[in-house]
Design a protein that fits this description.
The chain contains seven helices and 17 strands. The chain is an alpha+beta fold. It has three domains: about 55 residues, Structural Genomics Hypothetical 15.5 Kd Protein In mrcA-pckA Intergenic Region, Chain A (Roll); about 100 residues, Alpha-Beta Plaits (2-Layer Sandwich), CATH 3.30.70.580; about 80 residues, Alpha-L RNA-binding motif (Alpha-Beta Plaits, 2-Layer Sandwich), CATH 3.30.70. Strands 7, 8, 9, 10, 13, 14, 15, 16 and 17 form a nine-stranded mixed sheet that branches. The chain has a four-stranded antiparallel sheet with strand order 3-2-5-6. It has a two-stranded antiparallel ribbon with strand order 1-4. A hairpin with a 2-residue loop joins β5 and β6. The protein starts with a strand and ends in a 7-residue tail after the last helix. Its EC number is 5.4.99.-. Belongs to the pseudouridine synthase RsuA family. InterPro entries: PsdUridine_s_RsuA/RluB/E/F_cat, PsdUridine_synth_cat_dom_sf, PsdUridine_synth_RsuA/RluA, PsdUridine_synth_RsuA/RluB/E/F, PsdUridine_synth_RsuA/RluB_CS, RsuA_PseudoU_synthase, S4_RNA-bd, S4_RNA-bd_sf. It is an enzyme of class 5 (isomerase).
Length: about 250
């Protein structure tokens, strides 16, 4: 649900302030009823009219993409590189990625035109877990993994506690495969965290985002979210927000 004046501004009716004036002076109807309350919220299924002219709301869509390496996580790229939006060839709606994965990182990426949900997922207060699988140079010690679990200082910022474990070890090549779960999203965070404990990343993939997984997809594939997945994603945001709500 979004405020009525915001929906009107997004649809190009007028600026948000001018839209507020239109609402307050009785020019706007929602589901056949004149609305003058500025706090009114509407959803994608509500019928909105301004001076008798129907307002066409953009339908929210949600796509899960298995991002390949060598693709940028933006809608447009000044250097002419392939973007994640380019991969969604049959999607006609204007969508954008929720957060980003590095150019050389693969894995799960959500794309949508639902700005409210996107902002909630990207905001650290909601603590939506993201799990990564990294091939690293070196073999992390238990002490190093404990540093990740308690947080460490990188570029003046102490990271939140992460969940890390070693999945496999190749002693001959002196490499390991590490699983790391975080809920923050600072630039190059996973790479910086693993480098800080002496195991720089050679290859990185994001495997989960909240309740979403890559099950059934291969690199470059995408599909719309299933209704139950979207519900689970909204519930994950709602549940993690509750401890941070202010008391009145």
């Amino acid at each position: 649900m979004e405020r009525l004046q915001k929906i009107m501004a997004q649809a190009g009716v007028a600026s948000r302030r001018k839209s507020e004036t239109l609402i307050a002076t009785g020019h706007v109807q929602v589901n056949g009823q004149v609305v003058t309350e500025l706090g009114t919220k509407v959803g994608p299924n509500d019928a909105i009219q301004v001076d008798g002219i129907a307002l066409m709301q953009e339908k929210f869509v949600y796509y899960l993409l298995y991002k390949p390496r060598g693709v940028v996580s933006t809608a447009h790229d000044d250097k002419g590189r392939q973007t994640v939006v380019d991969l969604l060839e049959e999607v006609t709606e204007r969508v954008y990625p929720v957060g980003r994965l590095d150019y050389d990182t693969s894995g799960l990426l959500l794309l949508t035109n639902d700005g409210q949900l996107a902002n909630q997922l990207m905001h650290p207060r909601y603590k939506v877990d993201k799990t990564y699988i990294a091939k690293v140079k070196g073999i992390p010690t238990n002490e190093a993994l404990e540093q990740l679990r308690h947080g460490l200082v990188i570029e003046g910022h102490k990271t939140a506690a992460a969940k890390g474990k070693v999945l496999s070890i190749d002693r001959r090549k002196n490499t390991a495969v590490v699983q790391l779960t975080i809920h923050e999203g600072h630039n190059h965070q996973v790479k910086n965290m693993l480098a800080a404990i002496g195991t720089p990343v050679e290859k990185l993939s994001r495997e989960t985002y909240g309740p979403l997984t890559l099950a059934g997809l291969t690199s470059g594939d995408y599909r719309p979210l299933k209704p139950q997945e979207l519900l689970a994603l909204r519930e994950a945001v709602s549940q993690t927000a509750k401890p941070h709500q202010r008391r009145r």
